[in-house]
TrEMBL record:
The chain crosses the membrane at residues 44-64, 130-148, 154-174. Keywords: Membrane, Transmembrane, Transmembrane helix. This is Fatty acid hydroxylase family protein. Coiled coil: none annotated. It comes from the Bacteria. It comes from Paraburkholderia silviterrae.
Length: 300
């Protein structure tokens, strides 16, 4: 796929979902972003586009040229379906696992920015910590496939993946009207177990799990939701959580954009924060523990 065509398709996808958010009035009614949110989302998207991804491609190309010069374009004759399969495993499945372990205590500070938005919108898509993307294995694998000669197939793959990811984050839930059409139920059963959808991804962004809809400890898939089905982290309800975001931000105030983007170089001064060395992750479970501790202290 020609580079100009790739960028054109990406621009069309972004514009299309942006228009859907505006026309449906979901952006107006649900996206209440602050200047802090805007700085984080804009700067992270730009840094990924103009710095992180180009850097990864350049470094990977230099390393491959240094240690395996004979492999440049060595796999360029593979059929498109074989290249696609390699990308789905090497990039998308790898991203599933990277995303999953990023919900562990060690890596959560590099990913919490993505969950700190109190709204769903395409503007949240690349809202993350700078080092989250710099260390993302899938981006490095993708750069290797470019060296191996996946150029055209990789470009098409990126466009398709971006469309799915934008759709999953879009303020307008494109799957909602389809769920209401009984004749489409069998098709949607397949779709929601194959691709990431607004319903399954919003469950992942939910502020709580107690309503039976939220599932922030699962639904990690990016392009393929199939990985969640395969690895036992899927939660499908065809419903949408009332709230998304992080409870600790509601209770203690939002973290500054630079702390979210550049941790651990910049650390939070907030009393209860995961964005500082020795900080804690706040969740429904920790709130229960705090309540129990308080009750125990009172009993004494």
């Amino acid at each position: 796929m020609h580079q100009k065509l790739t960028w054109l398709l990406i621009a069309i996808a972004i514009a299309g979902f942006a228009m859907a958010e505006i026309i449906s009035k979901r952006y107006r009614d649900t996206v209440h972003a602050t200047s802090n949110d805007t700085k984080l989302e804009l700067l992270m998207s730009l840094s990924l586009l103009v710095f992180t991804q180009p850097l990864i491609v350049l470094v990977t190309d230099a390393l491959c040229q240094r240690f395996a010069p004979h492999l440049r374009n060595a796999w360029s004759t593979l059929p498109w379906w074989a290249m696609t399969g390699i990308l789905l495993v090497g990039d998308d499945m790898m991203q599933y696992w990277w995303h999953r372990i990023s919900h562990s205590a060690l890596l959560w500070p590099l990913h919490r920015a993505h969950h700190s938005a109190s709204y769903m919108s395409i503007r949240v898509t690349y809202r993350n910590n700078f080092f989250y993307y710099l260390m993302m294995p899938g981006l490095w694998v993708g750069a290797v496939t470019l060296y191996l000669g996946f150029g055209t197939v990789y470009a098409a793959y990126v466009v398709v993946k971006l469309v799915v990811i934008l759709g999953a984050h879009c303020a307008w839930a494109w799957d909602a009207p389809l769920y209401r059409i009984r004749a489409l139920h069998p098709l949607m059963w397949i779709v929601e177990r194959t691709l990431s959808t607004p319903a399954t991804h919003r469950a992942h962004h939910a502020i709580t799990n107690v309503d039976g809809i939220g599932h922030y400890k699962g639904n990690f898939g990016n392009l393929l939701f199939f990985w969640d089905v395969l690895f036992g982290t899927a939660h499908i309800t065809r419903q949408y959580p009332e709230e998304v975001g992080l409870r600790d931000d509601q209770l203690f105030g939002a973290e500054r954009w630079n702390h979210q983007m550049f941790y651990p170089l910049c650390q939070s001064s907030r009393e209860y924060s995961a964005l500082k060395f020795g900080g804690q992750i706040y969740s429904d479970e920790s709130a229960v523990e705090m309540s129990l501790d308080g009750a125990a202290d009172s009993a004494r």
